[in-house]
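Structure tokens please, single chain.
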Amino acid sequence: MLEIFRLVFESVGEVSGKPFYVDMTQYWELFNFKIRPEQKDNFDSSNKDEVYRQFASTKLITPMIYTVRHGQDILFFCSIIGYDAGMCDINFLVSEDFINANKAVKFAFIRCMKKCVEALPFRRLQAKVDTKFEIGQIFLEKLGFEKEGICRKFDKQLNDYFYYALLKE
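Here you go.
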């Protein structure tokens, strides 16, 4: 899967004078991640023990945890948890560096991510997003995901989440 991401992002070349890079996420990168305020309920990079626990537990269930950079800026973390029967959960953390990037970087990034999710060998990709996190909902919809339903009191703060899916024929 990593090769799919690398090939797609590297094919773009430089955007605004910097290339995109994709690699396996290293746990120490999470400490420098500028998380969006809307996602702080799920990820607090200031709590080093919690970051390490979350990363270690995710690594136990999937090796597919990727970092997308534009130059030195970390834009995005993505984990893919594959199941049998051609299904996977895909999780995203978007940084402030992405939000503060110029339009050319944002458009190139979204185009690349759309190509990546289309190239993944799963017939069903699933994602969830807090009902209050409008930017996350828009991002999933731009990638081709459709809203399927709602998960009530889903996280430890009892927030509701929308469930999204991208189905391939």
